[in-house]
Amino acid sequence: MHTLAQPKVKPPAGAFDLRIMTGLIGILLASLVAGLNEHVTDIAMSDIRGAMAISHDEGSWLTTLYEAAQVAAMAFAPWFAATLSLRRFTLGATSAFMLFGVLCPLAPNLQALYLLRTLQGLFGGCLPPMLMSAALRFLPPGIKLYGLGAYALTATFGPNLGTPLAAFWTEFVGWRLVFWQIVPICLLAMLTIAWGIPQDPLKLERFAQFNWRGILLGFPAITSLVIVLEQGPRLGWLDSLFILRMLLLGTVSLTLFMVNEWFHPLPFFKVQQLARRNLTFSLIVLGGVLVILVAVPGIPANYLAEVQGYRPLQTVPLALYVALGQLAALPLVSALCNIKRVDCRWVLACGLGLIAATCYLGSAMTSEWIRSNFYGLQMLQILAQPMAVIPLLMLATNGLSPIEGPFASAWFNTVKGMAAVVGTGVLEGVTQAREHFHSNVLVDQLGYHPGSYSIPTIGRESLALLAEQIHLQSLVLASADVYRLMALLTAALIIFTPLMATRVYPPRAVSNS
Protein backbone atom coordinates (compact mmCIF):
# COMPACT_ATOMS: atom_id res chain seq x y z
CA MET A 1 0.00 0.00 0.00
CA HIS A 2 1.49 3.22 -1.13
CA THR A 3 1.40 6.28 1.04
CA LEU A 4 1.03 9.61 -0.56
CA ALA A 5 4.17 11.74 -0.37
CA GLN A 6 3.63 14.64 1.92
CA PRO A 7 4.39 17.99 0.32
CA LYS A 8 7.28 19.90 1.81
CA VAL A 9 6.09 22.64 4.07
CA LYS A 10 7.93 25.89 3.53
CA PRO A 11 8.95 27.75 6.66
CA PRO A 12 6.99 30.91 7.27
CA ALA A 13 8.44 34.06 5.81
CA GLY A 14 10.88 35.60 8.20
CA ALA A 15 11.51 32.35 10.16
CA PHE A 16 14.99 32.33 11.68
CA ASP A 17 17.37 30.10 9.74
CA LEU A 18 20.79 30.22 8.10
CA ARG A 19 19.64 32.65 5.42
CA ILE A 20 18.17 35.08 7.92
CA MET A 21 21.32 34.86 10.04
CA THR A 22 23.48 35.57 6.98
CA GLY A 23 21.30 38.55 6.09
CA LEU A 24 21.58 39.91 9.63
CA ILE A 25 25.37 39.61 9.43
CA GLY A 26 25.21 41.61 6.20
CA ILE A 27 23.19 44.38 7.88
CA LEU A 28 25.66 44.30 10.77
CA LEU A 29 28.57 44.76 8.35
CA ALA A 30 26.81 47.66 6.63
CA SER A 31 26.08 49.31 9.98
CA LEU A 32 29.65 48.82 11.20
CA VAL A 33 31.15 50.30 8.06
CA ALA A 34 28.91 53.34 8.50
CA GLY A 35 30.29 53.80 12.03
CA LEU A 36 33.82 53.15 10.82
CA ASN A 37 33.46 55.86 8.18
CA GLU A 38 31.96 58.42 10.55
CA HIS A 39 35.18 59.96 11.90
CA VAL A 40 37.68 59.16 9.16
CA THR A 41 37.84 62.79 8.04
CA ASP A 42 38.81 63.79 11.58
CA ILE A 43 41.76 61.40 11.59
CA ALA A 44 42.93 62.18 8.07
CA MET A 45 41.97 65.87 8.05
CA SER A 46 45.52 67.22 7.81
CA ASP A 47 46.20 65.02 4.76
CA ILE A 48 42.88 65.93 3.14
CA ARG A 49 43.48 69.65 3.72
CA GLY A 50 46.96 69.39 2.25
CA ALA A 51 45.83 67.42 -0.80
CA MET A 52 42.90 69.71 -1.58
CA ALA A 53 44.45 73.00 -0.36
CA ILE A 54 41.64 73.85 2.05
CA SER A 55 41.83 75.71 5.34
CA HIS A 56 41.11 74.39 8.83
CA ASP A 57 37.75 76.18 8.99
CA GLU A 58 36.70 74.86 5.58
CA GLY A 59 37.77 71.35 6.57
CA SER A 60 35.67 71.45 9.73
CA TRP A 61 32.53 71.63 7.61
CA LEU A 62 33.31 68.25 6.06
CA THR A 63 32.66 66.63 9.43
CA THR A 64 29.73 68.91 10.29
CA LEU A 65 27.79 68.31 7.08
CA TYR A 66 28.32 64.55 7.28
CA GLU A 67 27.18 64.39 10.92
CA ALA A 68 24.13 66.61 10.34
CA ALA A 69 22.90 64.50 7.41
CA GLN A 70 23.68 61.24 9.20
CA VAL A 71 21.75 62.05 12.38
CA ALA A 72 18.77 63.38 10.41
CA ALA A 73 18.66 60.21 8.30
CA MET A 74 18.59 58.03 11.43
CA ALA A 75 15.31 59.65 12.42
CA PHE A 76 13.45 59.00 9.17
CA ALA A 77 15.03 55.83 7.77
CA PRO A 78 12.81 53.33 9.69
CA TRP A 79 9.65 54.78 8.13
CA PHE A 80 11.01 54.42 4.60
CA ALA A 81 12.28 50.91 5.32
CA ALA A 82 8.81 49.87 6.48
CA THR A 83 7.33 51.35 3.30
CA LEU A 84 9.86 50.14 0.71
CA SER A 85 10.83 46.91 2.55
CA LEU A 86 13.81 46.33 4.80
CA ARG A 87 15.77 44.41 2.16
CA ARG A 88 15.21 46.85 -0.69
CA PHE A 89 15.88 49.95 1.42
CA THR A 90 19.05 48.57 3.06
CA LEU A 91 20.51 47.49 -0.27
CA GLY A 92 19.78 50.88 -1.81
CA ALA A 93 21.26 52.81 1.12
CA THR A 94 24.40 50.63 1.22
CA SER A 95 25.05 50.98 -2.51
CA ALA A 96 24.54 54.76 -2.42
CA PHE A 97 26.75 55.06 0.67
CA MET A 98 29.51 53.15 -1.12
CA LEU A 99 29.12 55.13 -4.37
CA PHE A 100 29.44 58.53 -2.72
CA GLY A 101 32.41 57.26 -0.70
CA VAL A 102 34.16 56.33 -3.95
CA LEU A 103 33.41 59.74 -5.47
CA CYS A 104 34.51 61.87 -2.49
CA PRO A 105 38.29 61.82 -3.19
CA LEU A 106 37.58 62.51 -6.87
CA ALA A 107 35.69 65.74 -6.18
CA PRO A 108 36.97 68.55 -8.46
CA ASN A 109 36.54 71.27 -5.83
CA LEU A 110 35.57 71.88 -2.22
CA GLN A 111 31.90 72.57 -2.96
CA ALA A 112 31.55 69.24 -4.75
CA LEU A 113 33.27 67.48 -1.84
CA TYR A 114 30.83 69.10 0.58
CA LEU A 115 27.89 67.81 -1.48
CA LEU A 116 29.28 64.29 -1.83
CA ARG A 117 30.18 64.01 1.85
CA THR A 118 26.71 65.26 2.85
CA LEU A 119 25.00 62.69 0.62
CA GLN A 120 27.26 59.94 1.96
CA GLY A 121 26.31 60.92 5.51
CA LEU A 122 22.64 60.87 4.55
CA PHE A 123 22.78 57.27 3.31
CA GLY A 124 25.23 56.19 6.02
CA GLY A 125 22.75 57.31 8.66
CA CYS A 126 20.13 55.00 7.14
CA LEU A 127 22.10 51.84 7.99
CA PRO A 128 22.33 51.52 11.83
CA PRO A 129 18.53 51.78 12.32
CA MET A 130 18.09 48.82 9.98
CA LEU A 131 20.15 46.61 12.28
CA MET A 132 17.95 47.24 15.31
CA SER A 133 14.77 46.85 13.26
CA ALA A 134 16.01 43.54 11.83
CA ALA A 135 17.15 42.22 15.21
CA LEU A 136 13.79 42.98 16.82
CA ARG A 137 11.92 41.42 13.91
CA PHE A 138 13.85 38.25 13.08
CA LEU A 139 15.71 37.05 16.17
CA PRO A 140 14.03 34.41 18.38
CA PRO A 141 13.50 35.46 22.01
CA GLY A 142 16.32 33.31 23.41
CA ILE A 143 19.03 35.02 21.36
CA LYS A 144 17.50 38.47 20.92
CA LEU A 145 19.92 39.98 23.45
CA TYR A 146 22.87 38.76 21.39
CA GLY A 147 21.43 40.61 18.41
CA LEU A 148 21.09 43.75 20.50
CA GLY A 149 24.68 43.18 21.58
CA ALA A 150 25.64 43.16 17.89
CA TYR A 151 23.79 46.46 17.51
CA ALA A 152 25.85 47.84 20.41
CA LEU A 153 28.94 47.20 18.27
CA THR A 154 27.89 50.14 16.09
CA ALA A 155 28.35 52.45 19.07
CA THR A 156 31.53 50.89 20.48
CA PHE A 157 33.42 48.78 17.95
CA GLY A 158 32.97 50.71 14.68
CA PRO A 159 34.21 54.14 15.82
CA ASN A 160 37.17 52.61 17.70
CA LEU A 161 38.19 50.57 14.65
CA GLY A 162 37.92 53.58 12.34
CA THR A 163 40.84 55.34 14.01
CA PRO A 164 43.42 52.58 13.41
CA LEU A 165 42.35 52.01 9.80
CA ALA A 166 42.33 55.70 8.91
CA ALA A 167 45.74 56.15 10.52
CA PHE A 168 47.16 53.17 8.63
CA TRP A 169 45.94 54.34 5.22
CA THR A 170 47.13 57.92 5.65
CA GLU A 171 50.52 56.84 6.98
CA PHE A 172 51.42 54.11 4.47
CA VAL A 173 49.14 54.25 1.41
CA GLY A 174 47.32 57.53 0.83
CA TRP A 175 44.43 59.61 2.09
CA ARG A 176 42.06 58.42 -0.67
CA LEU A 177 42.00 54.94 0.88
CA VAL A 178 40.36 56.49 3.93
CA PHE A 179 37.26 56.90 1.76
CA TRP A 180 37.69 53.81 -0.41
CA GLN A 181 38.25 51.32 2.42
CA ILE A 182 34.49 50.84 2.69
CA VAL A 183 34.09 49.34 -0.80
CA PRO A 184 34.90 45.64 -0.15
CA ILE A 185 32.89 45.54 3.08
CA CYS A 186 29.89 47.20 1.42
CA LEU A 187 30.00 44.73 -1.48
CA LEU A 188 30.10 41.78 0.94
CA ALA A 189 27.27 43.29 2.98
CA MET A 190 25.11 43.75 -0.12
CA LEU A 191 25.64 40.15 -1.22
CA THR A 192 24.67 38.72 2.16
CA ILE A 193 21.68 41.02 2.56
CA ALA A 194 20.40 40.20 -0.94
CA TRP A 195 20.63 36.47 -0.23
CA GLY A 196 19.55 36.38 3.39
CA ILE A 197 16.84 38.98 4.03
CA PRO A 198 13.34 38.12 2.71
CA GLN A 199 11.74 40.51 0.26
CA ASP A 200 8.63 42.12 1.72
CA PRO A 201 6.03 43.63 -0.61
CA LEU A 202 6.00 47.34 -1.26
CA LYS A 203 3.59 49.36 0.84
CA LEU A 204 3.30 52.38 -1.39
CA GLU A 205 -0.15 53.12 0.01
CA ARG A 206 1.64 54.55 3.05
CA PHE A 207 2.69 57.50 0.89
CA ALA A 208 -0.97 58.54 0.77
CA GLN A 209 -0.53 59.50 4.43
CA PHE A 210 3.08 60.67 4.06
CA ASN A 211 4.09 62.98 6.87
CA TRP A 212 5.29 65.90 4.76
CA ARG A 213 4.95 68.39 7.58
CA GLY A 214 6.98 66.13 9.84
CA ILE A 215 9.92 65.84 7.47
CA LEU A 216 9.87 69.55 6.63
CA LEU A 217 10.03 70.37 10.34
CA GLY A 218 12.17 67.52 11.62
CA PHE A 219 14.98 67.54 9.07
CA PRO A 220 15.97 71.21 9.58
CA ALA A 221 15.44 70.84 13.34
CA ILE A 222 17.96 68.02 13.65
CA THR A 223 20.49 69.38 11.16
CA SER A 224 20.42 72.85 12.73
CA LEU A 225 21.08 71.51 16.22
CA VAL A 226 23.92 69.31 14.96
CA ILE A 227 25.50 72.32 13.24
CA VAL A 228 25.24 74.29 16.49
CA LEU A 229 27.00 71.54 18.43
CA GLU A 230 29.66 70.94 15.78
CA GLN A 231 30.49 74.54 14.90
CA GLY A 232 29.77 76.13 18.30
CA PRO A 233 33.28 75.63 19.77
CA ARG A 234 34.91 77.12 16.67
CA LEU A 235 32.57 80.11 16.30
CA GLY A 236 32.30 81.02 19.98
CA TRP A 237 28.83 79.61 20.69
CA LEU A 238 26.31 82.37 21.47
CA ASP A 239 28.77 85.10 20.50
CA SER A 240 28.11 84.09 16.89
CA LEU A 241 24.98 85.39 15.15
CA PHE A 242 25.02 82.33 12.88
CA ILE A 243 24.96 79.96 15.85
CA LEU A 244 22.14 81.94 17.46
CA ARG A 245 20.05 81.69 14.30
CA MET A 246 20.70 77.97 13.93
CA LEU A 247 19.82 77.39 17.58
CA LEU A 248 16.56 79.32 17.23
CA LEU A 249 15.66 77.47 14.04
CA GLY A 250 16.46 74.10 15.63
CA THR A 251 14.52 74.59 18.87
CA VAL A 252 11.41 76.07 17.25
CA SER A 253 11.34 73.44 14.49
CA LEU A 254 11.90 70.60 16.96
CA THR A 255 9.03 71.78 19.17
CA LEU A 256 6.64 72.00 16.22
CA PHE A 257 7.89 68.65 14.93
CA MET A 258 7.08 66.86 18.19
CA VAL A 259 3.60 68.40 18.28
CA ASN A 260 3.01 67.25 14.71
CA GLU A 261 4.22 63.71 15.49
CA TRP A 262 1.80 63.41 18.39
CA PHE A 263 -1.26 64.00 16.18
CA HIS A 264 -0.17 62.52 12.83
CA PRO A 265 -1.76 59.12 12.00
CA LEU A 266 1.48 57.75 10.46
CA PRO A 267 4.35 59.51 12.29
CA PHE A 268 8.10 59.07 12.05
CA PHE A 269 8.31 59.13 15.86
CA LYS A 270 5.61 57.62 18.01
CA VAL A 271 5.69 60.13 20.86
CA GLN A 272 3.15 58.05 22.80
CA GLN A 273 5.87 55.41 23.28
CA LEU A 274 7.52 57.73 25.80
CA ALA A 275 4.77 56.72 28.21
CA ARG A 276 6.76 53.48 28.60
CA ARG A 277 8.80 54.21 31.68
CA ASN A 278 11.75 52.03 30.77
CA LEU A 279 11.95 53.36 27.22
CA THR A 280 12.09 56.96 28.41
CA PHE A 281 14.65 56.03 31.06
CA SER A 282 16.77 54.19 28.49
CA LEU A 283 16.75 57.09 26.04
CA ILE A 284 17.81 59.56 28.75
CA VAL A 285 20.58 57.35 30.12
CA LEU A 286 21.69 56.24 26.64
CA GLY A 287 22.18 59.88 25.71
CA GLY A 288 24.27 60.48 28.83
CA VAL A 289 26.29 57.28 28.43
CA LEU A 290 27.14 57.96 24.79
CA VAL A 291 28.18 61.52 25.57
CA ILE A 292 30.61 60.04 28.09
CA LEU A 293 31.76 57.27 25.76
CA VAL A 294 32.55 59.80 23.04
CA ALA A 295 34.20 62.40 25.29
CA VAL A 296 36.31 60.06 27.45
CA PRO A 297 38.09 58.12 24.66
CA GLY A 298 38.80 61.43 22.92
CA ILE A 299 40.89 62.71 25.83
CA PRO A 300 43.90 60.36 25.41
CA ALA A 301 44.06 60.89 21.64
CA ASN A 302 43.90 64.67 22.00
CA TYR A 303 46.42 64.72 24.86
CA LEU A 304 48.94 62.43 23.15
CA ALA A 305 48.76 64.43 19.91
CA GLU A 306 49.04 67.87 21.52
CA VAL A 307 51.33 67.26 24.50
CA GLN A 308 53.46 64.29 23.45
CA GLY A 309 53.40 64.93 19.69
CA TYR A 310 52.03 61.51 18.71
CA ARG A 311 51.04 60.87 15.12
CA PRO A 312 47.61 59.22 14.58
CA LEU A 313 49.29 55.88 13.92
CA GLN A 314 50.99 56.01 17.33
CA THR A 315 47.62 56.28 19.11
CA VAL A 316 46.24 53.29 17.18
CA PRO A 317 46.96 50.68 19.91
CA LEU A 318 44.66 52.47 22.37
CA ALA A 319 41.65 52.48 20.02
CA LEU A 320 42.40 49.01 18.68
CA TYR A 321 42.67 47.66 22.21
CA VAL A 322 39.12 48.77 23.01
CA ALA A 323 37.70 47.80 19.60
CA LEU A 324 38.95 44.21 19.67
CA GLY A 325 38.04 43.82 23.34
CA GLN A 326 34.41 44.53 22.48
CA LEU A 327 34.25 41.38 20.35
CA ALA A 328 34.74 39.30 23.49
CA ALA A 329 33.03 41.53 26.06
CA LEU A 330 29.72 42.09 24.24
CA PRO A 331 28.71 38.39 23.97
CA LEU A 332 29.69 37.82 27.59
CA VAL A 333 27.57 40.73 28.81
CA SER A 334 24.68 39.59 26.61
CA ALA A 335 24.91 36.12 28.15
CA LEU A 336 24.98 37.64 31.63
CA CYS A 337 21.86 39.72 31.00
CA ASN A 338 20.14 36.67 29.51
CA ILE A 339 20.23 34.89 32.89
CA LYS A 340 16.86 35.21 34.57
CA ARG A 341 18.23 35.79 38.06
CA VAL A 342 20.43 38.69 36.93
CA ASP A 343 18.84 42.13 37.20
CA CYS A 344 20.09 44.11 34.20
CA ARG A 345 19.70 47.36 36.16
CA TRP A 346 22.61 46.32 38.38
CA VAL A 347 24.65 45.29 35.36
CA LEU A 348 24.02 48.82 34.09
CA ALA A 349 25.00 50.32 37.46
CA CYS A 350 28.23 48.27 37.51
CA GLY A 351 29.06 49.41 33.98
CA LEU A 352 28.49 53.02 34.94
CA GLY A 353 30.61 52.46 38.04
CA LEU A 354 33.50 51.24 35.88
CA ILE A 355 33.16 54.32 33.69
CA ALA A 356 33.23 56.52 36.81
CA ALA A 357 36.35 54.67 37.99
CA THR A 358 37.98 55.29 34.61
CA CYS A 359 37.24 59.00 34.85
CA TYR A 360 38.46 59.20 38.45
CA LEU A 361 41.76 57.52 37.62
CA GLY A 362 42.17 59.60 34.47
CA SER A 363 41.73 62.85 36.40
CA ALA A 364 45.14 62.20 37.98
CA MET A 365 46.90 62.55 34.61
CA THR A 366 50.03 64.69 34.37
CA SER A 367 52.17 66.03 31.54
CA GLU A 368 54.47 63.01 31.98
CA TRP A 369 51.84 60.47 30.92
CA ILE A 370 52.52 58.51 27.74
CA ARG A 371 50.51 55.93 25.85
CA SER A 372 51.21 53.11 28.30
CA ASN A 373 49.63 55.10 31.14
CA PHE A 374 46.25 54.88 29.43
CA TYR A 375 46.14 51.10 28.93
CA GLY A 376 44.66 50.47 32.38
CA LEU A 377 41.90 52.98 31.68
CA GLN A 378 41.19 51.34 28.33
CA MET A 379 40.91 47.93 30.01
CA LEU A 380 38.14 49.27 32.22
CA GLN A 381 36.42 50.70 29.14
CA ILE A 382 36.36 47.27 27.47
CA LEU A 383 34.09 45.98 30.23
CA ALA A 384 32.28 49.22 30.98
CA GLN A 385 30.96 50.02 27.51
CA PRO A 386 28.89 46.85 26.87
CA MET A 387 27.76 46.73 30.52
CA ALA A 388 26.37 50.23 30.08
CA VAL A 389 24.77 49.83 26.63
CA ILE A 390 23.28 46.31 26.48
CA PRO A 391 21.11 46.63 29.64
CA LEU A 392 19.69 49.87 28.22
CA LEU A 393 18.73 48.10 25.00
CA MET A 394 17.14 45.32 27.03
CA LEU A 395 15.15 47.75 29.17
CA ALA A 396 13.96 49.74 26.16
CA THR A 397 12.92 46.87 23.89
CA ASN A 398 11.36 44.55 26.46
CA GLY A 399 7.75 43.91 25.54
CA LEU A 400 7.91 45.70 22.18
CA SER A 401 5.95 44.09 19.36
CA PRO A 402 7.61 43.79 15.91
CA ILE A 403 5.36 46.55 14.56
CA GLU A 404 6.74 48.91 17.21
CA GLY A 405 10.33 48.07 16.29
CA PRO A 406 10.79 50.81 13.65
CA PHE A 407 9.56 53.48 16.07
CA ALA A 408 11.92 52.29 18.82
CA SER A 409 14.73 52.18 16.26
CA ALA A 410 14.03 55.78 15.25
CA TRP A 411 14.14 56.92 18.88
CA PHE A 412 17.28 55.01 19.76
CA ASN A 413 19.32 55.84 16.71
CA THR A 414 18.44 59.52 16.74
CA VAL A 415 19.44 59.79 20.39
CA LYS A 416 22.59 57.78 19.61
CA GLY A 417 23.59 60.04 16.74
CA MET A 418 22.82 63.25 18.60
CA ALA A 419 24.65 62.08 21.73
CA ALA A 420 27.79 61.39 19.68
CA VAL A 421 27.70 64.96 18.40
CA VAL A 422 27.06 66.32 21.91
CA GLY A 423 29.98 64.28 23.25
CA THR A 424 32.33 65.77 20.67
CA GLY A 425 31.03 69.26 21.39
CA VAL A 426 31.37 68.79 25.15
CA LEU A 427 34.94 67.55 24.77
CA GLU A 428 35.94 70.49 22.59
CA GLY A 429 33.94 73.14 24.42
CA VAL A 430 34.85 72.17 27.98
CA THR A 431 38.49 71.56 27.08
CA GLN A 432 38.71 74.95 25.40
CA ALA A 433 37.04 76.81 28.28
CA ARG A 434 39.06 75.11 31.01
CA GLU A 435 42.27 75.51 29.04
CA HIS A 436 41.72 79.27 28.91
CA PHE A 437 40.95 79.31 32.64
CA HIS A 438 44.07 77.37 33.62
CA SER A 439 46.21 79.41 31.26
CA ASN A 440 45.09 82.63 32.94
CA VAL A 441 45.73 81.15 36.39
CA LEU A 442 49.25 80.05 35.44
CA VAL A 443 50.07 83.45 33.96
CA ASP A 444 48.74 85.14 37.11
CA GLN A 445 50.92 82.90 39.26
CA LEU A 446 53.95 83.95 37.24
CA GLY A 447 52.96 87.54 37.89
CA TYR A 448 53.14 86.95 41.64
CA HIS A 449 56.80 86.01 41.26
CA PRO A 450 58.22 88.75 39.05
CA GLY A 451 61.76 87.88 40.09
CA SER A 452 61.54 84.46 38.50
CA TYR A 453 61.35 85.79 34.94
CA SER A 454 62.48 89.04 33.43
CA ILE A 455 61.04 89.51 29.99
CA PRO A 456 63.94 91.63 28.63
CA THR A 457 66.54 89.10 29.83
CA ILE A 458 65.05 85.72 28.95
CA GLY A 459 64.89 86.41 25.21
CA ARG A 460 62.27 85.72 22.59
CA GLU A 461 63.05 82.02 22.21
CA SER A 462 62.77 81.39 25.93
CA LEU A 463 59.58 83.44 26.06
CA ALA A 464 58.09 81.36 23.24
CA LEU A 465 59.13 78.20 25.07
CA LEU A 466 57.51 79.48 28.27
CA ALA A 467 54.26 80.22 26.39
CA GLU A 468 54.30 76.73 24.89
CA GLN A 469 54.80 75.14 28.31
CA ILE A 470 51.90 77.15 29.74
CA HIS A 471 49.70 76.02 26.85
CA LEU A 472 50.61 72.35 27.28
CA GLN A 473 50.16 72.41 31.06
CA SER A 474 46.80 74.14 30.65
CA LEU A 475 45.71 71.40 28.25
CA VAL A 476 46.70 68.69 30.73
CA LEU A 477 44.74 70.39 33.53
CA ALA A 478 41.75 70.92 31.21
CA SER A 479 41.78 67.23 30.20
CA ALA A 480 41.75 66.25 33.87
CA ASP A 481 38.76 68.57 34.39
CA VAL A 482 36.87 66.83 31.56
CA TYR A 483 37.51 63.50 33.29
CA ARG A 484 36.08 64.94 36.52
CA LEU A 485 33.01 66.33 34.74
CA MET A 486 32.33 62.96 33.11
CA ALA A 487 32.73 61.24 36.50
CA LEU A 488 30.06 63.53 37.97
CA LEU A 489 27.71 62.87 35.04
CA THR A 490 28.22 59.12 35.45
CA ALA A 491 27.49 59.33 39.18
CA ALA A 492 24.23 61.15 38.41
CA LEU A 493 23.22 58.38 35.99
CA ILE A 494 23.96 55.72 38.62
CA ILE A 495 21.68 57.48 41.12
CA PHE A 496 19.00 57.89 38.45
CA THR A 497 18.92 54.17 37.58
CA PRO A 498 17.09 52.71 40.61
CA LEU A 499 14.80 55.75 40.83
CA MET A 500 13.17 55.29 37.42
CA ALA A 501 14.00 51.93 35.82
CA THR A 502 11.80 48.93 36.60
CA ARG A 503 12.86 45.28 36.65
CA VAL A 504 12.59 43.38 33.37
CA TYR A 505 13.40 39.79 32.51
CA PRO A 506 15.09 38.42 29.40
CA PRO A 507 12.72 37.24 26.64
CA ARG A 508 13.72 33.68 27.49
CA ALA A 509 16.49 32.87 29.90
CA VAL A 510 19.29 30.73 28.54
CA SER A 511 20.23 29.68 32.05
CA ASN A 512 18.23 29.60 35.23
CA SER A 513 21.24 29.47 37.45
TrEMBL record:
SUPFAM superfamilies per record: MFS general substrate transporter (SSF103473)
GO molecular function: transmembrane transporter activity
A Pfam family annotated for this UniProt entry: MFS_1
The UniProt record lists the keyword Transport: yes
Gene Ontology CC annotation, any one: membrane
Signal peptide location: none
UniProt name for this protein: MFS transporter
UniProt main location, coarse: membrane
Transmembrane intervals: 20-40, 89-108, 114-136, 148-169, 175-198, 210-229, 241-259, 279-299, 319-339, 346-363, 375-396, 482-501
Keyword tags: Membrane, Transmembrane, Transmembrane helix, Transport
Membrane topology summary: Multi-pass membrane protein
Record flagged with keyword Protein biosynthesis: no
Domain Major facilitator superfamily (MFS) profile: residue ranges: 23-513
Compartments in which it is found: Membrane
